[in-house]
Design brief:
about 1000 residues; rod-shaped; Pectate Lyase C-like; mainly beta; single chain
């Protein structure tokens, strides 16, 4: 505080300076009415005041009371006193009964008073009162040795000798400089301050038509007389007030206070109460203590200063406050403003401990940035209709705003701790900053839109919504975060009842992100949490060219539709739940642990390999395929899964898919390190892969297509169930393979290879065709160059069907048995059915047995049926033509069992154009005729029975005994031979000239058979 602002203490030097000033035009003019008690000492008038009454009041009445530059002395001394103004003076004879405690000087005429000099109380201190209803002008006047000073235009109210107060009806008091060494009160209808007023301890200015008691309290109104000034209290540019405590009261309605100078208080503070407006433009109101301002009109502090080392309280009764153009309202403690509209454009409102502003449903304008601009405080609380912080700044330890509309375009609202914003209308933070450095941000506007857009080129983080570890909580109707930025060291909680537009936007949290909304548009944007991301929507989510990521936590998304086209979703566990559709075409969904996908209608996981080519430059990816990845497992539940050109990968776990309407896997990949379980209506696979390190289980209500595709269980089993299973051009491999088709299995050509056992069940037919064409037709598409198709079960094959068509097909069991049970026909024309090492395919190990049962017909034209063990064939009809396949160097078709061969033809005939070989034993039972045009052979015993005739055009041979039985006759154009005993039982045998019947070493027994013909018979 400057020297001028210090309260003046009178001393001899001060007085000498005052006396050195010119005095010619300012001589004393004092005329008392109630006595001639005026003397003079050393040129200074001395007023011997009247005797004091019982209340200590000396009442002195004047016709004129004008003080010159020399000053005046009010003698309150009984025995004389040494004075500052006149030196030693004599005692006052009027005070024989005692000195006064109150010196009341009242002017009763119509003459105003001019006080041009110092006024001193000689002797004992007393309250000095000058009352003149006609007005008082103080020109560098002052007061010495007074207990207190009162200047008033009011009429003193004396009741029974006691001063009760003053009735102020009119009058003006003008001060052009005033100095007092005691508390000073100025009471008038109007007060004009053109110079400085210095008062010790306290200064009271009370203006208006009032009744004022002796404690300077307005206790009622007085009848006004005369006209009023524009301002009840008017402080000029050169005017000022300086005291420890200053009280300004203006009670007249609509007439306020204007300060163009300085009002400076010390510890006692400043209190201003105006029943009108207060103008402090380019002026100063400053106190060490508190400042309290109450008006019934506007407060104008344009370029003004209202400062306190304590607190500032402003109440304008809902009238506006102008604090613009470098206006300053600043307190070391708190600032409280209760007003109407506030204009703080380029102004400064600051309270170190707190700022509380209530505009009573009016606007707060806080425009402008820079040093000492804006609103700043400890705890900042703003209640306003519209908070206009355009290009403005609001700062505090904690900041709370409550408004109907928040306009923070290019503005800054920053809290060191917590920021709380509540609005019933829109919140516009376009290019603005809402920040809580160490705490959290809480925004509530449940029926409105929050605009957090960024349209300028400012660096990321300088705008948006930013919080410390307290997190960010936003509850609004709509969130427009176009190119916006939301970031916190804690959690983000978004409760948005309608739409979140995060296009080009960023939402970051070191903790969790929780989003509740109807629709989320997340295009070319980021939603990234160090912990969990939870998104719960009533409508759709679009994650186009965007990231949703939980770095160390889980991702959960629930929506009507989830569109991740060109997007990336990553997390530890990922749970996606869509009422209708999930689109990932192409997109990347990657879980470090488990991925769970549920969609009410469909999952579209398309074109995974196109992710980098199509969108990599937007996502910052250079070599990353799309698809769905769950390191510890993938679970998908939907009506329809479309994985065309897609990838579903579980690096360490299982894949479970339930798609009750269908699964499209054309050019797609489903790959699991564990099991794969697929439950669907149908499965289409064109150039696709279903590969599991463990088991593959496919359970379908409809058809499966595995064209140019793989179904592989590397170290486990394959189980496939469906209506029709089409493996044309496909590959199915596993340890054990179990295929169950309600109708048809097509493997024409295809490869089904089990390293252990193969089991096939088909309700109607198995089509295993053209196995040798597999590599030439499809190998280049499958990466196979020297691999026949067919059905392979290294340790056994079981086929159950109505029909088996193995034309040009291969059915091979390297180590164990083959069992074929057919309700109708087996077609093995040009085909190969082999169990054990027959030399037809490499790497055979141990012999096996073959059982084939056909309900109607076995056709083996140019085909091969081979077993290194026993073989059983059972059918109604049997056909076999020669030629075709190769075994043991013999170029002919055949049925060969290295063990026993049993052929049972229940209803029809046998037509044999190839080889029928049972090395251990051969048994044939034919209900019709047996026609042999090639070779029937056994290394040991052979037992052939036909219900009708037997026609032998080539060879029936046995290494041991041979039993040949016909229900009719035998015609032999070939050779019938055994090394052992030969027995023939028929009606007759016609042994043509081309025929030979050779009995071998143990003879020939024709039984009762009649021998006819000219052929060779040996052994009878």
């Amino acid at each position: 505080m400057s020297d001028k602002q210090q309260i003046m203490k009178l001393n001899p030097l001060t007085v000498s300076i005052l006396f050195a000033l010119p005095m010619t035009a300012q001589a004393a003019n004092i005329q008392m009415v109630n006595g001639s008690n005026i003397a003079s000492t050393n040129g200074v008038p001395v007023i011997n005041i009247n005797q004091a009454n019982s209340n200590g009041i000396s009442h002195n009445i004047y016709d004129r009371l004008n003080v010159g530059r020399e000053g005046v002395i009010f003698n309150n001394s009984q025995n004389g006193a040494n004075t500052v103004l006149a030196g030693q003076i004599a005692g006052n004879a009027n005070l024989a009964s005692g000195t006064a405690s109150v010196i009341l000087n009242e002017v009763t005429s119509r003459n105003a008073s001019t006080l041009n000099g110092m006024m001193e109380v000689a002797g004992d201190k007393a309250q000095l009162i000058i009352a003149n209803p006609n007005g008082i002008t103080c020109n560098d006047c002052g007061f010495i040795n007074s207990e207190s000073v009162t200047l008033t235009t009011g009429t003193p109210d004396l009741v029974n000798g006691e001063l009760k107060g003053y009735s102020v009806n009119g009058g003006i008091i003008t001060t052009n400089g005033l100095t007092s060494d005691s508390p000073t009160a100025i009471l008038a209808r109007s007060i004009v301050v053109n110079g400085d007023i210095y008062a010790d301890q306290q200064l009271d200015l009370i203006a208006g038509n009032n009744y004022v008691d002796t404690n300077n309290n307005v206790t009622g109104a007085a009848q006004a007389t005369g006209s009023r000034n524009t301002y009840s209290i008017d402080v000029a540019k050169l005017g000022g007030m300086y005291s420890d405590k200053i009280n300004l009261v203006s009670t007249e309605n609509g007439v306020g206070v204007r300060n163009q100078g300085n009002i400076v208080g010390q510890v006692g503070g400043i209190k201003i109460d105006a029943n009108g407006r207060l103008l402090n433009n380019s002026a100063q109101i400053t106190a060490v203590g508190d400042v309290a301002i109450k008006t019934n009109g506007v407060l104008e502090n344009t370029s003004g200063q209202i400062n306190s080392n304590g607190s500032i309280i402003v109440d304008t009764n809902k009238y506006s406050v102008s604090n613009n153009k470098t206006g300053n309202i600043e307190a070391n403690n708190a600032v409280q403003i209760n007003s109407g509209r506030i204009d703080n454009t380029n102004g400064y409102i600051a309270g170190n401990s707190a700022v509380q502003i209530n505009t009573n449903n009016n606007e707060l304008v806080n425009n402008g940035k820079g040093t000492n601009v804006g609103i700043s405080g400890g705890d900042v609380v703003l209640n306003t209709a519209k908070l206009n912080n355009y290009n403005g700044q609001i700062q505090g330890d904690n900041v709370s705003t409550n408004s109907n509309y928040l306009y923070n375009l290019n503005g800054q609202i920053q809290a060191q701790n917590d920021l709380n914003i509540t609005s019933t209308g829109a919140l516009d933070n376009t290019n603005g900053l809402l920040s809580a450095v160490n705490g959290g941000v809480d925004i509530v506007a449940v029926n409105s839109t929050l605009y957090n857009k960024k349209t300028d080129t400012s660096p990321q983080g300088s705008t948006g919504i930013v919080a410390g570890n307290g997190g960010i909580s936003i509850s609004v109707a709509n969130l427009e975060n176009y190119a916006g930025y939301i970031q916190t060291e804690g959690d983000v909680d978004l409760a948005v009842s309608h739409h979140i537009n995060n296009t080009y936007g960023s939402i970051y949290a070191d903790g969790d992100i929780d989003i509740q909304s109807k629709v989320l548009t997340n295009n070319q944007s980021n939603i990234i949490a160090d912990q969990n991301v939870n998104i719960d929507l009533k409508g759709d989510i679009s994650n186009y060219l965007s990231y949703i990521s939980a770095k160390n936590g889980d991702v959960s998304i629930g929506a009507t539709n989830i569109n991740n086209n060109g997007g990336v979703i990553t997390g530890e566990n990922i749970d996606l739940d869509a009422m209708y559709h999930i689109y990932n075409a192409p997109g990347l969904i990657s879980a470090n642990k488990a991925l769970t996908v549920n969609a009410g209608h469909s999952v579209q996981n398309l074109s995974s390999e196109h992710l980098t080519a199509s969108y990599g430059k937007y996502l910052g990816l250079t070599d990353q395929d799309g698809g769905m990845y769950g390191k510890d497992g993938v679970t998908i539940n939907t009506l329809t899964l479309n994985n065309t050109k897609g990838k579903i990968i579980a690096e360490q776990g299982d894949i479970t898919i339930e798609s009750s309407h269908g699964l499209y896997n054309d050019l797609g990949t489903i790959d699991a390190n564990g099991d794969i379980d697929i439950q669907s209506k149908f499965l289409t696979g064109n150039q696709s892969k279903i590969i599991a390190d463990q088991n593959v289980n496919i359970n379908l209500q409809g058809d499966m297509t595995n064209y140019l595709s793989y179904v592989t269980a590397k170290n486990g089993d394959v189980s496939i169930n469906g209506a029709n299973i089409n493996n044309n051009g496909g590959v199915i491999t596993g340890t054990n393979i179990d295929i169950d088709a309600d109708y048809h299995l097509y493997n024409a050509p295809g490869l089904i290879a089990a390293s252990n056992e193969l089991t096939v069940n088909a309700g109607h037919s198995v089509q295993n065709l053209s196995s040798e064409h597999f590599s030439t037709s499809y190998g280049k598409h499958l990466g196979l160059t020297d691999q026949n198709g067919g059905m392979y079960g290294r340790n056994g094959i079981v086929i159950n069907s109505l029909n088996l068509n193995n034309t040009k097909g291969h059915i091979i069991s390297e180590n164990a048995a083959i069992k074929i049970d057919l309700g109708h026909d087996l077609h093995n024309d040009y085909g190969l059915i082999s169990s054990g090492n027959g030399g037809l395919v490499p790497n055979r190990l141990v012999a096996g047995a073959t059982t084939i049962q056909a309900g109607h017909k076995i056709s083996n034209n140019y085909g091969t049926i081979y077993s290194t063990g026993d073989m059983t064939l059972d059918s109604d009809v049997f056909y076999m033509a020669g030629g075709g396949s190769t075994i043991q160097g013999n170029a002919t078709g055949f049925i060969v069992a290295d063990g026993a061969l049993s052929i049972n033809v229940r209803k029809g005939d046998v037509h044999n154009y190839g080889w029928i070989v049972g090395r251990e034993k051969l048994t044939m039972n034919v209900s019709g005729y047996l026609k042999n045009l090639n070779t029937i052979y056994s290394d040991r015993d052979a037992d052939l029975t036909a219900g009708n005739a037997i026609y032998n055009f080539q060879n029936i041979l046995s290494g041991n005994s041979l039993n040949l039985t016909s229900g009719s006759y035998i015609k032999n154009d070939g050779t019938i031979y055994s090394d052992g005993h030969t027995s023939i039982d028929a009606t007759y045998i016609y042994n043509t000239s081309y025929g030979s019947i050779l009995g071998g070493g143990q003879g020939l027994d024709l039984n009762d058979t009649q021998l006819m013909g000219y052929g060779l018979v040996f052994g009878l």
